[in-house]
Amino acid sequence: MKISVVVKSITDFKGDAIILNIFEGTKSPGGATGAVDKLLGGLISRLIADREVKGRVGEVTVLHECPKLTVRKVILVGLGKKKDLNNEIVRRAAGIAVKKAREINARRVGTIVHGSDIGSLDPARATQSLVEGTCLALYDFNAYRKPANGQRINEFIIVEKDPSKAKKLSNAVVIGQTLADAQNAARDLINEPANILTPEKMQKRIQMLIENWGIQKVVKCQCLDRAALRKMGMGALLAVGQGSSHVPRFIVLRMTNADKPLVGLIGKTVTFDSGGLSIKQSSGMGAMKTDMAGGAVVTGVTLALAKLDSKVNLLTIIPAVENMPSGSAYRPGDVIRAMNGKTIEIVNTDAEGRLTLADSLVYAESKKAEIIIDIATLTGGCVVALGEKIAGLMGNDRALSDKLIEVSELAGEKFWTLPLYEGYLNKLKSDVADLKNSGGRYASAITAGLFLKAFVEKAKWLHIDVAGTELTDKESDYTPAGATGFGVRTIYEFLSTL
């Protein structure tokens, strides 16, 4: 879909449909909506008076009779109360409206920027949010079936009457579309079946993405095989993968900017998690193809940073393994040794992601990373605590945690800080090793964070647990059912501020 900015009045737009907005509580629309209302003989005002249009967030109305306009239909989307307007509501409204445009078979669609005029939002940021919501809402994973919606929108045009804003809006379009494309690339990876996206094929898919995005000169890709990992002493990661016929792939992406501190970005990448010998229940096990969501997200973040020429010094680590039961699988009761020499007693082979992350954290510090962020579908306990809309956040640097929470508000993704309470360290105490790989059911998200903290020495570190937020079984405003790609926008915004 081609997205562009044109300078003209929305009343002069030629196409199949235009998208306007209305606030809750409005009695007489103003701005672009008011101008269209006049040409329609006050139709929108009458619908408001009759309470057929209320302006609530999520409400969408299609006007079919537009004799004085050069479009066939007008789509009116609610923004809620003006005092509550923010960029996330713009994303939601954009997603709702563009899905309606697709539903009514519009191919050339024009829209105003929601909230940038009467709503008083920053025009560039509102445009970015509008484009994000639009592109994310139209996502459809159809690699193995016919597209769910046969009709496609060919042109999506942002109409702005003030020529002085055009350049800023055009730049915002590029950012918004790139971030949405990066998040959709992450969604594609997460939605892939585990028989298609093995660790080996994950490596090839990432290399193909780098080529297709035209960023080979910016992002260098290196892959370490099992022999190299063994030589470096990555016994924790190797233990997880030893039960599978698909050998691990330790994928490293590098963006170099010597003037900036090195940031390590690590994504848990268990391409399928059966639980190993501590096998999961069969119900819901199919969703364990998404246990590589962290790796998909950090891939998407890296694509966006490179495409937008962000000045970051980045080390992205994607430790791809498959956790399977077999005669060669690691066992409860085993003692393994991580890259830093610490020994780990295995009490549960389904607490495997933290083992791959432990070696990855040590590797990142060995490369002199000063800031490390890991993102993982790590614990069911995080889902119990925070549900399916909020990710857990832990770390050893309060300023970094606060900064990520701050930028997450712009990105429209929700995080909540959990305490790394050292009083729970006794849950990880082992009689035969330096620590156990699981502290049990209670406070499991926190004890998992404490486990990871044991493998960070000097770096400022943040841990993000996206268990529950990486997948949805219900379509929402700009998120189709399936993989969400949660975290791409927030981490991009966060790294862009460093």
What does this structure look like?
- This protein is of the alpha/beta class and 498 residues long.
- The protein has two domains: 2-179, 3-Layer(aba) Sandwich (Leucine Aminopeptidase, subunit E, domain 1); 192-497, Zn peptidases (Aminopeptidase), CATH 3.40.630.10.
- 35% of the residues lie in helices and 21% in strands.
- It has helices spanning 31-39, 43-49, 87-103, 123-137, 166-191, 199-212, 226-232, 235-241, 293-307, 353-366, 380-386, 398-411, 444-453, 488-497; strands spanning 2-7, 15-22, 60-63, 71-78, 108-111, 155-160, 220-224, 249-255, 262-267, 269-273, 313-323, 335-337, 343-345, 371-376, 390-395, 414-417, 435-436, 460-465, 471-472, 482-483.
- Helix 4 (123-137) packs parallel to helix 5, helix 5 packs antiparallel against helix 9 and helix 8 (235-241) packs antiparallel against helix 10.
- It is elongated and about 80 Å long.
- The two termini are 32 Å apart.
- The mean pLDDT is 97.
The CATH topology of the largest domain is given as: Aminopeptidase
Which spans of ≥5 residues are poorly predicted at pLDDT below 50? none
CATH class value of the largest domain: Alpha Beta
The CATH H-level homologous superfamily of the largest domain: Zn peptidases
Tally the structural domains: 2
Shape: elongated
CATH architecture of the largest domain: 3-Layer(aba) Sandwich
- Please provide the count of β strands: 20
Q: How many separate helices? A: 14
Write the layout of secondary structure elements.
Layout: E1 2-7, E2 15-22, H1 31-39, H2 43-49, E3 60-63, E4 71-78, H3 87-103, E5 108-111, H4 123-137, E6 155-160, H5 166-191, H6 199-212, E7 220-224, H7 226-232, H8 235-241, E8 249-255, E9 262-267, E10 269-273, H9 293-307, E11 313-323, E12 335-337, E13 343-345, H10 353-366, E14 371-376, H11 380-386, E15 390-395, H12 398-411, E16 414-417, E17 435-436, H13 444-453, E18 460-465, E19 471-472, E20 482-483, H14 488-497
Parallel strand pairs: 1-6, 2-4, 2-5, 5-6, 9-11, 9-14, 10-11, 13-17, 14-18, 15-16
Antiparallel strand pairs: 3-4, 7-8, 8-11, 12-13, 15-18, 19-20
Helix pairs in contact: 3-4, 4-5, 5-9, 8-10, 9-14, 12-14
